[in-house]
Amino acid sequence: MHLISKGLSCLLCASLLAGSALPVLAENSAPAIIIDTESGESVDELLSETVPAWAAEEEAVPTEGEALELSCKSAVLLEMNSGTVLYEQNAHEKLPIASVTKIMTLLLIMEAIDAGTITYQDMVTCSAYAASMGGSQIWLEEGETMSVDDMLKAICVVSANDCCAAMAEYLAGSVESFVARMNEKASALGMDDTQFVDCSGMSDDGYSSAYDVALMSQALMQYSDITRYTTIWMDSLRDGKSQLVNTNKLVRYYDGITGLKTGTTSTAGHNLSATAERDGLKLAAVILGCTTTADRFGGARKMLDYGFANYGVYTPTVEESELTPVKVLRGTASCVEVTADPPQPLLVKKGQEKNIEKTVSLSADVEAPVYADQVVGTVTLSLDGQELASYNIRAKEEVPRMTVGAAYCRLLSALIA
Question: Which residues are catalytic?
């Protein structure tokens, strides 16, 4: 987690508590402390040392999702490794999602970095259009340049609309072309409830669903580098001249949080996609259409608590003693050593892992020629009679077919011996 120094944090808090006004560089320029203005919270509220009620309360965690009480229009809890939905409430209702839209913008940026199309060090020049975005921003000026690295930080931490537009133009030539790419990616991910109209979520004409937001959150979190930005609580830009404070309070108050994005407009209400990981279990809790910001954070916390309390990741093992060599017929070797594909972690209800049954099935023999990685058996895992997963057992090496000449030489060698 990228935190600014304790000294700087104390200095900022002391300044606020003393009632000093936020310093401003010039009219329409970036203030010294930048936050997501769409959230409706002040700098004082974000930096307050008072723990919010939703974070402080210790509630009993239900064992069944139906017992979760959430104040929202729509919600989903997704386990991101398997794609399993652990809880849902009106999961496919089409709703405006405000700045949660930026998850798709971030996904396309991370894909471009991964593909080598752009780098973190690339310098991006702000156009007049990008500088005019308004709303949550870092007050980029026309002609100002900033690295992709800093643009990502600004988008993730303070939901900067100007940086979204600048990055959209840098990647696609225009915001309109970039939005077309966003919708193409949404279609590819199976986001059937979604239509993007901009790259920032400023317009309420676009829409998505809790389930679709979970899908794009899952896709973004496959790029582990994104957590270098989504877990920031406080940081800076412009050589320390602009201080950033994250609106996502879960970054500050929830153990294992990895992100991800808040979003608020008067029409959309308070929205959040929250991702977290503990002991290999990766969850995305999406909550949309809340009346208050406490409802979204408290609701996301309830879903995450439910997931971590009731589910776990089980990684099966296959012992070497279970993988006996397989007999080879008419081969240059009488048998072949085998190995199992690496088992993938399984999502299970806590306590069920001890009831998982493992069955190793190997061919009694195989006909030569045998090829390296040829499937010669399976490992099957089941629970209460239902198959959970299966993994291939493969030949470690090739075994050519025995030729007449090779057979004669083997026979001769045996007679001499």
Answer: 99, 102, 159
